[in-house]
Write a structure and sequence with these properties.
82 residues; 34% helix; 34% strand
Length: 82
């Protein structure tokens, strides 16, 4: 099975881990999305070879999985505009 992205959410810690393909989620789109989501979560990005890994830490005990899904949708919408 082919996966565009992978989300691992840990509700206990309020963190979500994303493993992204830069073809679908260009770094420019991710940078703009990080800026847009800075009030909802803190984000660490790590480049791993051809992949982009992100760690999202939700603020105020928000649902990290929902934030991660919204983050990805927002990044994809920015990609369409590029």
């Amino acid at each position: 099975m082919f996966c565009i992205y992978q989300i691992k959410a840990d509700q206990g810690s309020g963190k979500a881990f994303l493993d992204l393909n830069p073809f679908f989620y260009p770094p420019e789109a991710i940078e703009k999305t990080v800026e847009a989501f800075k009030e909802l979560c803190s984000i660490k990005t790590i480049r791993q070879g051809q992949r982009l890994e992100l760690e999202l830490s939700a603020v105020n005990k928000a649902d990290c999985e929902t934030i991660a899904l919204n983050f990805l949708n927002y990044a994809l919408s920015l990609r369409r505009e590029m």
